[in-house]
Amino acid sequence: MSALEEKTKEVSEGGGFTMLFFIIGLVVSLIFGWVVFPELLYSQKKQPFDFNHALHSELVDEGCESCHFFREDGSYAGVPQLAQCVGCHEDVQGETEDEAIFVNEYVKTGQEVPWLVYSRQPDCVFFSHVAHVKTAGMDCQTCHGDIGQSTSLKVYEENRITGYSRDIWGKNIAGFKTHTWDRMKMDDCSECHVNLGVKQASVQTGKGACFVCHK
Amino acid sequence: MKIDRRSFLSLGIGVTAGTTLSPLPWKLTDDLSIWTQMWPWTPVPKDGEVSYVHSVCTLCPGGCGISVRKVADRAVKIEGMDGYPGNDGSACPLGLSGLQLLYGPTAIQSPLKRVGERGAGKWQKISWEAAIAEVAEKIGRLREDGKAHTLGCITDSDCGTVPELFKRFLTAFGSPNFMRTPSCADTYEMTLKLMHGTDASPGFDVENANFVLSFGSGIIEGWGTPGRMFRAHSAWKDKKVKVVQAEPRLSNTAAKAGQWLPISPGTEGILALGLAHVIIKENLYDKNFVDNYSFGFEDWKDSTGKVCKGFKSVVTDRYTPGYVSGITGIDSGDIEALAREFAGASSPLAICGRGQGSVPGSIHEFMAVHALNALMGNLNRAGGVSAVQRADYITWPEPEPDRVAQNSLKNERADGAGSARYPYTKSLLTRLPAAINSAEESPIQALFVANANPCYTLPDTEQVREAFAKIPLIVSFAAHMNETAEMADIILPDLGHLERYEDVPTPFGMNTPMVGLARPVVSPRKGARHVGDALLLLAKQMGGSIAKAFPWTGYEDCLKKTMGKSWTGLTENGFVAKADYKPAGWDAAFATPSKKFQFMSEACGHEGKTGLGAVAAEGDPKAYPLVLIPYDSMRLSGGAVANTPFLTKTVADTVLTGKEAWAEVNPKTGGKLGLAEGVHATLTTPKGSVRVRVHFSNGMMPGMIAMPRGLGHTAPDAYLAGKGINLNALVGPVADPTSGLDAAWGIRANLVIA
Fold this sequence. Notes:
The structure holds two protein chains of two kinds.
Chain A: H1 3-41, E1 42-45, H2 53-59, H3 82-89, H4 97-107, H5 129-135, H6 141-144, E2 156-159, H7 166-169, H8 186-195
Antiparallel strand pairs in A: 1-2
Helix pairs in contact in A: 3-4
Chain B: H1 5-21, H2 24-37, E1 50-56, E2 65-71, E3 74-80, H3 93-96, H4 99-102, E4 112-114, E5 123-125, H5 128-144, E6 151-155, H6 161-173, E7 177-180, H7 184-195, E8 200-204, E9 211-217, H8 226-239, E10 242-246, H9 252-256, E11 259-261, H10 268-281, H11 287-293, E12 294-295, E13 300-301, E14 307-308, H12 311-318, H13 321-328, H14 332-344, E15 348-355, H15 363-375, E16 385-389, H16 403-408, H17 432-438, E17 446-449, H18 454-457, H19 461-469, E18 473-476, H20 483-486, E19 490-491, E20 502-505, E21 514-518, H21 531-542, H22 544-548, H23 555-563, H24 566-573, E22 575-577, H25 586-589, E23 597-598, E24 626-631, H26 645-649, E25 656-657, E26 660-665, H27 667-672, E27 680-685, E28 688-696, E29 704-708, E30 747-753
Parallel strand pairs in B: 6-7, 6-17, 9-10, 9-15, 10-11, 12-23, 17-18, 18-19, 24-29, 26-28
Antiparallel strand pairs in B: 1-2, 2-3, 4-5, 4-19, 8-16, 13-14, 20-21, 21-22, 24-30, 25-26, 26-29, 27-28, 27-30
């Protein structure tokens, strides 16, 4: 074998390894990026106790707004405060452990429940519920899905970097969505605003684009 | 096959390709951008229901109505309250930044007992029960020893339920020593007593005046009710009302005035008499008022038949424009022109009380200024000055002091107010330190201090601290740590201004009688109690006739019962005012012996005394060739409540740089002294010496140095302590010969390059 041939062989053998290492690198990083990274990025947090939306929906007359209401000044009350619950929950009802936790740890001590809010947006975003629900006539499901029919609260996944819920980015780590309520990122807001031809200027400032939501 | 360098390179390329094809870099970029734009440690107010609570700001005596915006239970913004009498939506920067006091670190959390040396700041937390029991036991011993009259009390006001509760406590206890912190209200009230014969406070119809002559009053520097004065000042600009400011320094008020008269400080009263001279000489005064409703204008015979010189003779004989010009430094032509302009206006208003009015001032100066209003008949009518009767809603039955208290109440006051020497003065707090220091045993053996900080605000701070050190028991009712609380033996923490109820009666300068309601905006902090409640607890603990004098279950109960039917209106509107109020007409307005307005008062002697020269500044002119004058600024709180961090941030670099204070001098004066802009210099007055930096300002009269009040705190507040110099430590009190009140407008000083 000539020196030249030997060299050629070495190259071709080395070429196989090169490919193998490329594939190893590719596969490992893909697995890391798609599977391990999301696991690392989000911490799993449990709500203070479980809550049955479906059960409560049956007992009220005005759907979601019975508890998640608008105040007189048009501002949105958000997650119910203890005062709203006390009417029925002054004493432990039923036998669930969650009910006992609620009454004993919160109702009796007068401490507000530190609910983890799946849909909390970053503080730089100005979002008006009344503009969407009352003025535009949107229903709750469009953004929040069927949470009202759920019988228990899912695990709250908190982004370790930003501190916001995974529901904002969406469960799908690639950012794909199938329902309107799968994601709550800026693009999702603007997509809808553009599609529906929403006035592209802020009511308060008169400025367009960013200033509609970022005051 | 061999693993070589290329294999690693391709591994790297594979990883790069894989990572790029995974969501990792894109998601991380997004998250990091969110993280960097919303640092998790940046405080964000909680979301919640927005509400407004109407209250009254009690950080200064101005009493502006405020609306506090709340989100859930947290107060987030203070605004001026629309529709509140006077300030009507306006507020000052101290009031606006009041939340920093509410949520700041200086609020006292529980009763404290001093354990270390006095003033060393070593405290032990004690329970309310223990604190009240200890105070009761100690002051109880004073009564047993026949020294009930040695209990003193210092507060910032003498009307309203809280000061009245203190007065009541002292009366039931047996002490006459209730003292109000000094201000120009003292001298104005005495002016009204002597000239109108009424026990009233002055009301200025600033909204309707159409010519304003201010003898050094800081109209937009915090004089009167700040929010109200801002509004009036803006309205004057719109209505083209001329403002003339006579003041040695170009203050903001002077800078925005139509005319600034740089006047030799302390000679303001002389200028007023000079103006009166021109007005009388040229027959420009209101003859109807002067002839029919005044006394002492012309010469008169007293009961012994002696002819006394009237105001007209005194003024025309002596205060010619030339003479006045020589003393005040104002051109005699300007004096004549100003007098004619003043007299030519239909509602000319003359006001005085330097700066924010924190120093009482000379009674003659105030009377001379008030005489100008009287000459124009501008009393008790639109655009003028009126005597506003003191609030009459507190109608508690007189307390019934027991025999110990009755005997004890016969003693003279420790400060000399109301004595044969100063019969018309109600309170002489500035005389108290000297009285204590000169006595072998302090005439005040126990002292209550509420809503006041005398160890900072009184002149000659060193002397005050020395006197306080001699008082065996000091009880402070401070909500926040301050210089006086530091000297206390026991602190019974009061609720902060946004945590408590309090009635705020007609503030100084307001021309309609009214009461405002300060009310809790947020739930009060747990360890503190309303000063009224603390006093009621103490009275209960004392038992006997003292406890009987306080039949209420708590302060809120007391306030509600006191206000009676007004309570509903008070809680609904935030204030009660008599909308149709009109001051008494000239025929019924005056309660002097002559039933007329008195240009001359026997209190000042008949002849010539009105014409006493300017009150001299303390110090030998040879050793101290310059004069130091303190000034007030809207950016600095010189009162009992110290600056908030926000307010200190607004102070200019030529006033305070880091911890260094600046002294303003005229470039001519500075040049003569060999100084330059920014150099360090030693400022010396008879009271002490400090290191300052020099700032050249053409807005200062030559021969003078100006420095602001409100800096140089020593109390443990990281935002304030050690910053600048407390002017009160450099200036001593100068007693007015008639009233005994502090009439100091400055002090002789020297400035030498350091």
